[in-house]
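S1.2 Input.
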Amino acid sequence: MSGYIYLGAACCAWGLYLSNRRMKGERAMGFPVLAGLVFLAALVLRLLLGYYSDGFSVDMSTFKSWAYTVHQVGFRDIYQQDMFLDYPPGYLYILRLLEVIRQTLGLTLEGQSHTLVMKLPSIFADLACGWVLLRLGRERLGDSGALLVSAAYLFCPAVFINSAQWGQADSFCTAILLASVLFLYKEMYIPAGLIYGVSVLCKPQMLVFAPLYLCFAVKRKHWLGLALGIGCALGAILVLAAPFTHGFNYWWLVVKYQSTMNYYDYLSVNA
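S1.3 Output.
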């Protein structure tokens, strides 16, 4: 890990250096061209890392097994199987889609192409977060500032190593959470609550961000918005978990969250 730490430090130093430079006039190439080159480079970097690295082998093998099994037995019976499954239902929708893609393309279970397919949700989530930073940065910082902020995120080693090399799902959940926070910022509590519920159903660690929504609503004194947001979040969880539920008994979901959160000592081992 020491090499990654040095790489991350160098990236941060370079970003700080660029952020303090005085820009001299407009660049020769226009903003769309520069932005396109930044995102193309970010995508190529991730595709190469995703294909030529095996990822964190334990998790990659687990994701592949879950994807194959949920496609074979369906949502209703996946949690009845004699297998280790600590994720709530949300990400299983994505894994089933990835398994459909694998079978459609005729990829082998242990091939590098299949490994890349399993990493695609987080790879595209990285690009989505970078695009949001680009849009928001352009409104507040101008073209050069927006490109710097977006590139600083896209080429941060902690980001692309976690998604494209290790194959973790954190970037995917982060992108969903970011969309929810943007709706919250615009005081659109219903879509913010719905999307936040989806993020919680994908990974229990998203619960750590619940105080953000509470504090925002309390500061704005929007009690009705807070109630609507909570109701929408719970509604999204119940609706998406329904195909996995027998007889509308959702107690299994509560037990799943309790067991998963008790299993891990930290909210993020990647921090």
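S1.4 Remarks. The chain is about 75% helix and 0% strand.
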